[in-house]
Queue: 3 jobs
Job 1
Amino acid sequence: MSEVRELKVNRYIVIDDEPCKIVSITTSKPGKHGEAKARIEAIGVFDGQKRSVVYPVRHKVSVPIIDKRVGQILSITGGTVQLMDM
């Protein structure tokens, strides 16, 4: 979990149970009786769909842990893929 104010462009966030890469973040100033809001635009990692949400800057959001590694595909059978870590 991370606060919205800590997020940066090119990092990842979970929107609608889908991991997304942040494309842009814009924040508004706090109003007379409200706190500042942040508009986050992101693109889904798996489906490429563009998503946008508006949260208060103190709102806690889920941040996925993404581990990128180099690997080799050994076999593809039906819905299963076997990989070898390099």
Note: The two ends are 31 Å apart (CA to CA).
Job 2
Amino acid sequence: MKFWLLDYHPAHARWEFEDMEDFERLAFDGQPMLASWIPPRLKCASSKKPTDFLMRHNGALLVTEKAAKLFQRHLRHGEAEFLPVEHKGETLYFVHVLNIPDCLDVPNCLEERIGDTLTGYKQYAFHERLAAPHGILRIRLHEGDRLVNYPFVGDTLQAAISESDLAGYQLLEMWDSACSWQQKEADFEAMVEASDRARTKNFDFGAASPYMKKKGMTVYSGKWAMRHDPEKGLLIGDLLGDGTYSWIDPMFIPPILLGLTWGIKDPEPSPSGMLGKIAGVFAGGRKKA
């Protein structure tokens, strides 16, 4: 089983509170609010793409009625409450997660701290038996009383959202019972080391840049890769856990790349066509001599 972090996608739309008092009073701390619910006034600050996930505030997601109905079909009673907000003739809902189970495997979590204060977790681990029944949950830090500012969903709700036509969300895998984050890190490091061992014809950044442009080849260093695109110019790749690269068109070259040793892993392209034939003639002539 897996747990996924669920969030809205800011590239689709951005909503805000009209009144700062509403912003401050809505704690969404896991205590039921429906009986005393006073809807806030909201406004759409920007709308770029259609979305069913409009904003997140203190761990509660504002969603459309269509999204709320999907949640209601797949969650157990009491895991969340749906707090209505009327906006221009449409009913929106804050999905307020009430389910805060004690199922975190604290010794196997990777903590984030400022000084001695626990502020969150970089990596999560759960006790599978305790986590399995839950469709959606919030996490309380094991020190203090603070909640992680995102909802987590299990496989059932993740699949329902992914297979629906809902738009404007992010689902990020945070835990896999079949493979711990420690094992994933070890596998990734092994993949990086294998990439470095496979490199040939090593050179510094100053030589790598014109080489990849001239030869049309990708150069590698650790978890990084670079290639030249005829239209976009330099592209930088970041190695992912599945062995593929995530490519970006950078606004500037990250300084960390300048001091790395680069190399190629593929054989250089062989001459072809007429140039190849000419090269073969000269090579043959030299051989006879």
Note: Residues 185-264 form one domain.
Job 3
Amino acid sequence: MTDEPEHTRLIDMSDADARKALLKSESYFDFDLPIYFGFDRMLSKIDAKLSGVALQDVCVGKVGEQEKVNHTIFHSKDGKYAWRPQELINPVLYVSMVHQLTEPDAWKLVQAKFAEYSGDQRIECVSLPLISNSEKKTDKATTILSWWQEVEQRSLSLSLEYEYVIHTDVTDCYGSIYTHSIPWALHGKSLSKKKPNDQTLLGNQLDRTIRWSRNNQTNGIPQGSALTNLIAEMVLGYSDMLLAEAIKEKGIEDFFVLRYRDDYRIFSNNPADAEAITKLLAEVLRDLGMKLNPSKTSISSEVIKSSIKQDKMHWIGKEKRKRNLVKHLLLIHELSSEHPNSGSVAIALSKFQRRISKVKETKEPILPMVGVLTDIAIHNPRVYPSFSAILSKLVALSEPNEREWILELVLNKFRRVPYSGHVHIWMQRFSLPMGVQPDFLEPLCKALENPDFELWNSTWLNPEMRNLLRARQYIEQEELGKLSTVIPPEEVQMFENGYY
């Protein structure tokens, strides 16, 4: 008897199992939120209401003409002006798309197309959504481990076969995907152009529903769910197939392309061939509305060195220099200055959190640590959950009469940072049990204050369906009642000791 694999590719599941997987809370929104946000119950109720019912039958208005149908959390990339939108798709539209995609005949088509996309084994996609088979590991943790195993370690192995590698990625991938390219990927460009309004075609159904969720825009798809990750992979898989045809026409034989979502590694023994493939890729993507990022495109003859992210190379061994708490944070600050918003910064802060979580009291001054920690977070937005967890501990270690003052100091810093709603969500997580309630600007924070709060514009839905989208449907009251004032490591960390 063989052991069950640690994970299953979503695309390898049956239509029924795929539907079940996509209707999980963590599939609906894969961004980090506090534990009292849970969308399973709401999605299950909508799934039941939409079973055998056309979306139009629950509408009282034209959804495509509405603004703010989805809720967007703008996530800063650098603490300045670069940002990435993470969208909580309107749950009714999300469930409707899951139904469209996982109808038995539709799912068979999708599985057949993904097999077609991977026809040339020299172009390999290693980023198809994964579903964990372990109760101890989330789908997100499984995906991160897969990145390390399938991309970085695979790249190290490929150094035995190839002398050169080009790294490149797509600029604003999700925001650039042309929605009409979804039917092209599933049905071919020619047929799709002949039948743009044929709603028997799965690609047209998905195209229309995505556009409806975004005020009929054709540029871009939502980012933040397993569903739209799979749809992005359809378009990118289609581009893999077109690239393989273009390379064949060019007569290039000795190469290997490793793709993780919109991140490409092009291996070759001839730098001219690698450059030619990159040019062909740029042309293929251009026809689909996307373009390569010139600032992230580089060629190297040092395959091993370029296969490991620079932040990891920088940090290896240096963390042993840490001494007291302030110096430990300053060392992480140095890393974050050299490699902002990198995975190594996130892992370093996670380890610091585990260290400080064991501290009962300290003679070290709290405010300098809060200052260094806040500066790290402002310039490294991916660490907001860990930052908030550490801040909750530092505030708990401070004098009771200083706690509200410290929180206001930190919040005032973030109020000057564009797109910092995510940190407001996480600071609310520990200020609530502390009995401190600053003015949080992120709309999602209002869901804890008002059970009837409507996050999504749902005026186009009938009253029964609209009621399923109120805050009481996705705020877990039982979890709210168990909140501690200090956020424990297990609430914000997927791995106990990092993953590399």
Note: The CA atoms of residues 404 and 465 lie 40 Å apart.
